[in-house]
Amino acid sequence: MFLQKGYLATGMDEIVAVSKVSKTNIYYHFASKEELLAAIIHQLITQYTEKITQIAAQHDQSVWERLQRFTELLIMEEVDCLGGCPFLTLYTQTPIEAEHIRNAIKQFFEQQVIVVEQLIIEGIQRKEFNESLQPPAVASLIVSTIEGGLFLGHVHQNPQMIRSSLFALAAMLK
Question: Contact at 8 Å (CB) between 59 and 128?
Fold first, then answer.
C-alpha cells in the first residue's frame, strides 16, 4: 500500500483492513507506521542486495551481460509503485524526521554504485570497456540512468525506455 498509494496517503486503519490482521497484532510488532515502513525498507533492501550480489558474482558472464541482468532485475520486479522504483517512491514519501529510514535507502543506492563501479573496473581489466573510463563517474551515471529510466518508463507506461538508454550506455562504454 505504501508503494501503490504512498506512505503519507496510507493510514494504519487501512493497513489493518487490507492485511486482515488485528490492529493490536500490528501494533504488537510495530509501534508506529514509521516502524512498519522501516521494516518494509529493510526487507526490500535485503532482497534486492542478495539478487544484485548474485548477479555481480557471475564471473563466467561478461560484465555487460551482468549489467544488463542488474537492470533487468530492477525493471522486471513486479512492484506497482508511484515512482517506478520502490526505493525512490518510499524515499520521497518518507518524512524528513525519519532520518534512519532515509539513510538506509541512501546507503542502498551508495552500495549499488559501488557494485557497478566494481563491475566497470572488471570490464576495463577484461578489456570489455574503454580503459579511459572513470569508474566512479560511470557507475553513478549507470545507476542514475537506471533509476531515471524506471521513473520515465513508469510515467510513460513504457518499460522499453530504459532498454533504449542501455544501448546508448553500451556504446559509450566501449
Answer: no
